[in-house]
Design brief:
The complex is a heterotrimer of chains A (276), B (548) and C (121).
Chain A: H1 5-22, H2 30-65, H3 67-73, H4 79-105, H5 108-138, H6 151-157, H7 191-196, H8 207-239, H9 249-273
Chain B: H1 18-22, H2 27-55, H3 66-85, H4 88-101, H5 110-132, H6 146-149, H7 154-181, H8 194-226, H9 239-272, H10 280-293, H11 309-337, H12 346-369, H13 371-377, H14 381-411, E1 413-414, H15 417-443, H16 458-488, E2 490-491, E3 530-533, E4 538-541, H17 542-547
Antiparallel strand pairs in B: 1-2, 3-4
Chain C: H1 2-12, H2 24-46, H3 52-72, H4 80-107
Classes of the chains: A mainly alpha (276), B mainly alpha (548), C mainly alpha (121).
Chain lengths: 276, 548, 121
């Protein structure tokens, strides 16, 4: 929505005054305050990258060393829901970036609308996640010792459920030798166990996939919630007219955080859902 | 700009009462609160150390049983590392000094700074609670699968460490942005005091490495509470992976500890040799080099863990590289002292101790970095001695030196030089008594973390325990001296030591806002332009003196 | 459209504002590209290319991430240090993942099959 230049200029003066009032005393100029805030946010984002990086390392180590587990188990995930979530997040990133632009242009109505849409997108993402988690819970597709899959239901209820693979994964794709004696451990099944599972083709330690899956999507989900809380707060303030061309930094910072959440999902989606 | 005594209204008198301190935004007050808290936990950790050393006076039971002993050494390590040494110099002195050294009014994000402190307090509470709720007996490294199955209160302690990690991260963010954006006119990167180069490099490590500790502890907690199975071999998990995770942070963490200490060293050696620092750029760039290289060597803690041969070889080779920038610094400090006019004031005694003790610590690290020797030395007292020589002989000594150096600035009081020197001497003697024998017994096979030991090791343990008690006496003298100075010490001039960095250009203690105008930033090591003024007992700019 | 008029006015006003304002058409174009790339990622799974599939998926993800970073997150218009911070952190992740993967892969053959005694403290 376009404002009259005069009106906008007036708004500029008003928010500039409030901006001048708001610059903390230890900064010399508004530019110093602005650039410091932005730099600080970027370094915080770098720490988040490292936080998730650890989980990506766990993923890489387990997938690299037990690929058959991942090939088998990822089929329990619904790639359509994952793709839907990807599109939702991408769109909410658009609305967020657009919201920042609106704040910079002093367009309060558009700003609040776009922030609301972003919140809706994040909420929808969480909704889809809840649907997915519920599905896992109902079918016992959890981590560690909680992994007790109810195969019959799974085959019936979801068309995207694991089609039992036609051919056995080639023996040389896994580096897990047959076990000699003793309890199950890091190494995989004995010949007898393999034969017993031959029809189901379920490899050992499938729960490892779900441990990684829940850790990664769980931590990501927590960050989505945190992002929604921050954007929610920004939304409330935006409705009260707190933001304008001279005071849009909080919107910008919230936006950066939200884009990072989107970035992480951009990598999570193919790695978890689209394993070939 | 003068050497006058403390002004009436300074940051200490600006506002009274608990709330004015606990909810302050003044970086100086935050620094002082950190100093008090950190020193408290140093004493607590030291108390656990005294328990350890007393128990080890005799093989078998001396004052406690084996399970309690496991808890005591774990707590000693955890408290010392997470509550003393990692926050250490950056929190206690960096917070106070950094903005003033930049001629700024505060750090970039004062509220984030306060949050850092509050998180420190919360993390400390969690750790203390865990001590009271059954403590932890896993060793400070929390190796799985023992840490995921033991019945001690691991979750509380690791949650505490997780929160402390965020305290560290936020401090790092604050320091990086402050140094980037709030330097005064005239202070280019090449005019930055070396202490700030050190804090900057430390902050880089803080922001990059600590999140990995965060995810490690988080995974440990969910493994323990929910049985996720990532580290449990009975479920197909990988305990060596835990070690990769843990050491990816914990090795750079030791450089979080030592880099600020080295920064302090650069200041002390220059000022107390009355000489411009030698090799400014070499020292500055080696700080950054250490920060980067520190990330490449974590596997040297895992040589005997089951890490692959290839991994072992790579990490061993890289470990040798990280010694180089440290050595460069040592040579530059020595060159600074050469033909300098050396004053053996208390801070300088600590600086000289550092040179010797960190030198020994660093060199013994090379023994441990070589695969062939490490196989024999891993998990022996040799390792214990190595890291105490670097962390205690290095970082703690520098911490004490920093405390004695900046004490007059922070509190406006001079302490007794005699008592200060006595304490420094006792620290040096006590430290070497405690830890040198540990190198010997370690190389002869005495394992670390062992409650019981063979009789032939007893003489070494007795010597070590005697040293520990000497250290305790040293700390009593040290603390007594400093506390006494708060009440009876001579009022400190603005610049008692004759340093050219900006924090000495304002009064001692500084006023609430540090500087009304950012001062002119020159060469921070140009000591020529300062002369000693008898009448005030401190240094003043040459022109002021001649003009007067 | 009023948005376009305001855009021109504000591109001239850029010097006044503290931050660069990303043109709306750029935002929409990036969004469209992201959607296309997401669909491409899903489609690429259908094509059987063995181990290359993983790298293709990661490559597309990397392109998407770059678009989000450059335009939504303003890296294109900001001072370079922000991009350095992001890329730097990614490099350290790669370092960690790489060495951990290298090491774990190389000791798999040393694992004793079927041997994992439960820990009983």
């Amino acid at each position: 929505m376009c404002r009259e230049p005069r009106a906008r200029g007036h708004e500029l003066r008003r928010s500039e005054q409030s901006a001048a009032r708001e610059i903390p005393h230890h900064f010399a100029t508004p530019r110093q305050a602005y650039e410091s805030g932005k730099l600080g946010m970027w370094i915080f984002l770098a720490t988040e990258v490292l936080l998730f990086g650890g989980l990506f390392a766990a993923y890489a180590v387990y997938r690299g060393n037990h690929p058959e587990v991942f090939v088998y188990a990822h089929r329990f995930l619904d790639a359509r829901l994952g793709a839907l979530n990807t599109l939702i997040l991408i769109t909410s990133s658009l609305t967020m970036a657009w919201a920042v632009r609106s704040a910079q242009l002093g367009n309060r109505r558009l700003l609040t609308l776009l922030l609301a849409l972003t919140l809706l997108g994040g909420g929808a993402f969480l909704g889809v996640k809840i649907v997915e988690y519920e599905h896992k819970w109902k079918h016992g597709l959890l981590w560690g010792e909680q992994y007790r899959p109810h195969h019959p239901e799974t085959a019936q209820e979801h068309s995207s459920a694991p089609e039992i693979p036609r051919e056995t994964p080639p023996g040389d794709r896994t580096n897990i030798p047959p076990a000699a004696i003793g309890p199950p451990g890091l190494a995989s099944s004995t010949d007898e166990e393999r034969a017993a599972h031959a029809s189901a083709k379920e490899p050992r330690n499938v729960h490892l996939f779900f441990g990684v899956y829940f850790a990664m999507t769980g931590l990501h989900g927590l960050h989505v919630i945190a992002g929604l809380l921050v954007i929610g707060w920004v939304f409330v303030r935006a409705r009260g007219g707190a933001y304008g061309p001279s005071n849009f930094e909080p919107v910008d910072r919230a936006g950066l955080y939200w884009h990072l959440v989107d970035l992480i999902w951009i990598f999570l989606f193919p790695l978890l859902y689209l394993i070939h | 700009m003068n050497g006058s005594t403390a002004v009436a209204d300074n940051y200490l008198s600006h506002g009274r009462g608990f709330r004015s301190w606990f909810f302050t935004l003044d970086h100086k007050r935050i620094g002082v609160m950190y100093l008090a808290s950190i020193f408290f936990f140093l004493i607590l950790g030291g108390f656990f150390a005294m328990l350890i050393r007393t128990e080890l006076l005799t093989p078998g039971r001396t004052i406690m049983d084996a399970d309690t002993y496991n808890q005591v050494f774990t707590l000693h390590g955890a408290v010392m590392i997470f509550l003393f040494i990692i926050p250490g110099i950056p929190a206690a002195f960096g917070n106070f000094v950094l903005p003033v050294m930049l001629g700024a009014k505060d750090v970039a994000f004062p509220r984030l700074n306060l949050l850092s402190y509050h998180l420190y307090v919360v993390g400390a509470i969690f750790s203390v609670v865990s001590i009271l709720l059954g403590a932890v007996d896993t060793g400070w490294t929390f190796y799985t699968p023992y840490s995921t199955t033991t019945h001690t209160s691991v979750v509380s302690m690791t949650l505490g460490a997780f929160i402390l990690g965020f305290s560290s991260i936020f401090t790092g963010i604050n320091f990086i942005v402050t140094i980037h954006r709030m330097r005064p006119p005239g202070m280019s990167w090449n005019r930055l005091p070396l202490f700030l180069w050190a804090l900057y490099s430390t902050a880089i490590i803080q922001v990059l490495a600590t999140p990995v500790l965060g995810i490690t502890l988080l995974l440990l907690i969910v493994e323990r509470l929910l049985g996720i199975g990532i580290f449990d071999p009975a479920l197909g998990g990988d305990p060596v992976l835990y070690q990769h995770f843990f050491w990816f942070y914990s090795h750079p963490a030791v450089y979080i500890m030592i880099l600020p200490a080295m920064g302090v060293m650069s200041e002390l050696i220059s000022v107390f040799s009355r000489k411009h620092i030698f090799g400014y750029k070499a020292i500055a760039y080696s700080s950054v080099a250490i920060a980067v290289l520190s990330f490449l060597v974590w596997g040297h803690h895992m040589f005997t863990s089951g890490q692959s041969d290839l991994g072992n070889m790579i990490f061993s080779a890289l470990t040798f590289s990280v010694a180089i920038p440290s050595a460069i610094k040592v040579f530059n400090w020595l060159a600074t002292m050469y033909k300098g006019s050396i004053r053996l004031d208390t801070p300088m005694l600590y600086a000289l101790s550092f040179l010797l003790l960190f030198g020994i610590g660093g060199l013994t690290g090379l023994f441990l970095g070589a695969l062939a020797t490490d196989v024999h030395l891993h998990d022996t007292y040799f390792v214990v001695a190595h890291f105490h020589y670097t962390m205690m002989g290095g970082v703690l000594i520098a911490f004490l030196g920093a405390m004695h150096y900046w004490w007059p600035k922070m509190f406006g009081r001079m302490y007794s030089e005699k008592a200060g020197r006595l304490a420094a001497f006792l620290v040096f003697v006590g430290f070497n008594l405690t830890f040198f024998s540990q190198f010997v017994m370690g190389s002869q096979g005495m394992p670390r973390r062992y409650y019981n030991y063979l009789d032939r090791f007893q003489p070494y343990h007795v010597l070590s325990t005697i040293g520990a008690y000497v250290l305790a006496v040293a700390f009593v003298v040290l603390a007594g001296n400093l506390i006494h100075s708060l009440f009876r010490g001579r009022k400190a001039p603005a610049n008692p030591w004759g340093s050219a960095t900006l924090e000495w250009m304002c009064a001692s203690p500084p006023p609430h806002d540090n500087f009304a105008e950012p001062p002119e930033a020159g060469d921070p090591y140009d000591l020529e332009h300062l002369v000693y003024d008898e009448s005030i007992g401190g240094y003043v700019p040459r022109t002021a003196r001649e003009g007067a | 459209m009023s948005e376009i008029r305001s855009e021109r006015e504000h591109e001239s006003r850029e010097a006044e504002s503290l931050g660069h304002i990303v043109p709306l058409r750029v935002l929409l174009a990036v969004w469209f590209a992201l959607v296309l790339l997401s669909l491409a990622t899903v489609g690429a799974v259908r094509v059987e290319l063995g181990s290359l599939n993983l790298w293709i998926a990661l490559g597309i993800a990397f392109v998407k991430a770059t678009l989000v970073g450059l335009y939504f997150m303003h890296l294109r218009y900001d001072q370079p240090f922000h991009a350095i911070a992001l890329v730097g952190s990614l490099l350290f992740v790669v370092l960690f993942v790489g060495l951990a993967l290298l090491d774990t892969a190389h000791y798999q053959h040393e694992l004793i099959p079927g041997y994992a005694p439960a820990v009983r403290p």
